[in-house]
Amino acid sequence: MLLRRVRDNRADAEAVRAVATAAFGPGAHDERRRVGFLRRVRHLAATDPNGCWLAEDDAGRPLGAVLAGLRENLWGLSLLAVLPQAQGKGVGGELMRRAVAHGRGTLRGMICATPHPAAPRVCRAAGFSLHPTMRLTGTVDAARLTAPDGPAIEGGAAHRDLMDSVDRRVRGAAHGPDHGELLLHCRVVVADDLAGSGYCYLDDGGRVELLAATSRRIAVRLLTSALLSLPAGADTAVRHLTAGQEWAVDVGLAAGLELAADGYLCLRGMRPPAPYLPSVAYL
């Protein structure tokens, strides 16, 4: 087995996607999601080359891939995938060691893990605590939602400083360049008044990508406003809700969404941030 860094080019992005598809299944056949995945790989390969690795066999065929980013004092794992035929042979462990080394000296870490039995095992071995999560999915019933208690506006690049400031207060580290990437393919709703500050990203498929707020009141306002902004009859998903995010559970249930178990929010050196809904890709 050979390990090399993921390069910021289409060929390597496609190789990482092929590994992820083989490991986790094809998922939705959606061109937008495919393009979004390729963008995510190239973004992290450009910002964090020491955290992004491909494992290949002697013939140069991909066996596994890992993507990890370091934002200020917070390390995050965006992806760890190994081909089914290569699992159980040390590929995932070696990739994880390379990714963790990218955050050497950083105590804080975050991973959104799937329910797959191998995921919590790998995360625990890396020293992470496991926090079970829930997800909300379904069609939004706008008539059942209470109107927001204040303004939430369409945001953009002008709000990046505000969003980084919210990040630092809620999770201890700004997203920095990830906001620039998210703004290219997501809408963002922003609130900022005496009740607090926060933001909520919606991807182009109507799913909540990331939410952070300095108070539960602002978080409720943002999530409600985001769901109400979707077209009539639109489906959505709100994922990785820890037990401390009951405010989000209440909004989702009021909107007619279904609640189910999800995976794990894996944390090192920190408690579950709240009010906060992490991004699987950008945490």
Task: Draw up the topology in text.
Elements: E1 2-5, H1 10-24, H2 31-47, E2 52-56, E3 62-71, E4 74-82, H3 91-101, E5 108-113, H4 118-125, E6 129-139, E7 153-154, H5 160-171, H6 177-185, E8 186-193, E9 196-203, E10 208-213, H7 216-228, E11 235-241, H8 246-254, E12 258-268, E13 276-277
Parallel strand pairs: 4-5
Antiparallel strand pairs: 1-2, 2-3, 3-4, 5-12, 6-11, 6-12, 7-8, 8-9, 9-10, 10-13
Helix pairs in contact: 1-2, 2-6
Please give a structural write-up.
The protein is an alpha+beta fold and 283 residues long. The chain has two domains: 105 residues, Aminopeptidase (3-Layer(aba) Sandwich), CATH 3.40.630; 135 residues, Aminopeptidase (3-Layer(aba) Sandwich), CATH 3.40.630.90. The chain is built from eight helices and 13 strands. Strands 1-2-3-4-5-12-6-11 form an eight-stranded mixed beta sheet, with helices on both faces. A five-stranded antiparallel beta sheet has the order 7-8-9-10-13. Strand 4, helix 3 and strand 5 form a beta-alpha-beta unit. Helix 1 packs across helix 2 and helix 2 runs antiparallel to helix 6. The chain starts with a strand and ends in a 6-residue tail after the last strand. 43% of the residues are buried. The mean pLDDT is 94.
